[in-house]
Amino acid sequence: MSGAAVHGGALGIVVVNYGSAALIERNLGSVDLAGLPVRVVVVDNFSTDRARDEIAGLAAARGWQLVALPSNGGFAAGVNAGIEAARAHGCVAFLLLNPDAVVAADVIEELRRHSLREPAALISPRVVDPAGNVYFAGARVFLDSGRIRGGRSDGALPVAPGRRARAASGPAHEWVSGACVVVHDDLLQRIGPLDERYFLYWEDVDLSVRCVAAGGTLVVRDDLTAVHDAGGTQGPTRGEAKSALYYYFNCRNRLLFAALLLPRRQLVRWMWATPAVSREILLRGGRRQLLYRPSLAWAAVRGSAAGLRTAAAALLRPPAGHDARPVTPPARALVPDLPREGLR
């Protein structure tokens, strides 16, 4: 940290852990950060005593700061705690990094420098999977339905072979992926922290929209690359299948986002489109998954129902602006049948 003044400002690398110590050791632990003005903060959302001991040992061996939370409050809660810890040690920008993502040291340094040059921007590299296929290069959420599509033909949400995603067009919000994104503290002071009501998924969409609404910008650096083994924190799955948490919270949070940020007319449109869009979310994992895990469909149904209840309640309230104060998330109490899985 002693070189922070020379380099123009320190970067806090914030990683949220949920039983993923081995992933973090393999990915972030493989990056040589020596000489860079960075501080690594690992936030452990409690899963088990054994997992807590594993991540504590790894942090101590690597010289990383550990923030040990007493429970699993979700991705946003972990990020917010990590940012507070990094801020307390003088960091002025923060790299939010998934446990299953790998970023080279020179990319991290360029992201830091870019954030210092452009503090009103959310900045992401181009993100690819281990095979080199584009996972994220910009994305949009369409305002007529709540469908998410990659910003380009090779965008963030490819469909499985043999299926075609329903076309989406019209007005849309751009957003950048929270798998690897840099945010400056100046911007956070203007727009507030990540909204903990989401628990999992859509926090990055929400943050991106609030960034632009506050006069900030979204930047995807095509010349910089991160590798993301998507779903690595979710435990073993078969084929293209996603986790039950993925389906539940994607279906739920799509409507939570609409209830928090969209006008009533658009909210009603998103509610009307929910059966079709939730089906599309479920089929991101293919049809075959339902043969051996039909409960995944139930997770999507339950998430959709929870989201519709939230949306209906919003329609009954007087119009109000976005309130980013943390609210206790519904988390596992509403999804008792789901396995103990990771954050993203």
Automatic annotation (TrEMBL):
Gene3D superfamilies to which the protein is assigned, alphabetical: Spore Coat Polysaccharide Biosynthesis Protein SpsA, Chain A (3.90.550.10)
Alphabetized UniProt keyword annotations: Transferase
One Gene Ontology term of the molecular function aspect: transferase activity
Positions in coiled-coil regions: none
Domain Glycosyltransferase 2-like: 13-133
Domain of life: Bacteria
SUPFAM superfamilies in alphabetical order: Nucleotide-diphospho-sugar transferases
Cited InterPro entries: Glyco_trans_2-like, Nucleotide-diphossugar_trans
Region (Disordered): 319-344
Protein name: Glycosyltransferase, GT2 family
